[in-house]
Amino acid sequence: MAHYRASESKREQFRRYLEKAGVLDSLTSVLVALYEETEKPNNALDFLKQHLGVAGQESADTEALQQELRDMRQRCELLAEENKDLKNRLQRYEPTQEDGAAE
């Protein structure tokens, strides 16, 4: 019987912890929103994630990746321009085989 009370005490402490942190309220409100949806989503877990704010964390990651992509594209443009300039400079010093064959 003492083991039962100890586990009940731990459960009660954990429940109070979740309640104090606002987890129970958040879960309840999201589950109620899901329940009240007239057309249930195909993926309930995605619905929960989106409404709990997990999607917000993913969007922050997405924004960082989008910024990295913009930086890489800009760098690629600069490198392509540098490559073009270097090819033009090389043309002046080493004529192509077509130019050499014509001479």
TrEMBL record:
GO terms for molecular function: transcription coactivator activity. Keywords: Coiled coil, Nucleus. It is found in: Nucleus. InterPro entries: AMY1. Residues 62-89 form a coiled coil. The keyword Ribosomal protein does not apply. GO terms for cellular component: nucleus. It comes from the Eukaryota. Belongs to the AMY1 family. PANTHER family: ASSOCIATE OF C-MYC AMY-1, C-MYC-BINDING PROTEIN. This is MYC binding protein.
